[in-house]
Amino acid sequence: MINKILQHYLNVDASHEQYRHLTILLASILTVTVCMIGFLGFNINTGRYPILIVAESVGVILCFASLYSLLIKKQVKLASFMFLFMVTGICFLVMMFVGNRSYSLALSVIAPIFSVFLLGFRLGSLFSLLYLIAFSWLCISHIGVWKDGKQHGKGKYYKEGKITEGIWNEGKPINFKEVKN
Fold this sequence. Notes:
Low-confidence stretches: none
Mean pLDDT: 81
Strand content: 5-15%
Largest sheet: 3 strands, antiparallel
Strand order of the largest sheet: 1-2-3
Shape: elongated
Structural class: alpha+beta
Distance between the termini: 57 Å
């Protein structure tokens, strides 16, 4: 499917020098667009984070704009920058508003990886450096707000030299029994 889209809109085949870059860019934009539409539907359905509904709506619009600039206008760098700034903005908004729940800080590794692939080594490294500075500021400025993630499921608990085992529910140990070493 990606090959056919690239051939139809950009007249690029597998022997073209930018084929690999364009394939990664188009696949990334299409994948993130589908995921953003899914998350937008989920957040609209649950209604838990209204600011993320707005941000994801803007993200979907930017995904379609980057597709337009890539496929219709044939502006590869513009499409790469638009897509990368959208991914970075969504990741920062999720980290700021969701906090340390549901692995939101794991999103911090997405933008630097995309930047190196989509912008090349030099621009991608510069973007990653600026991203690291912004991410460090975010972590330092919100360190007093973020709490430990709540633990669920089976687990072990170490307290006062004793190891106990049981079930975690909403971060509280339930039915814990002492375990022999």
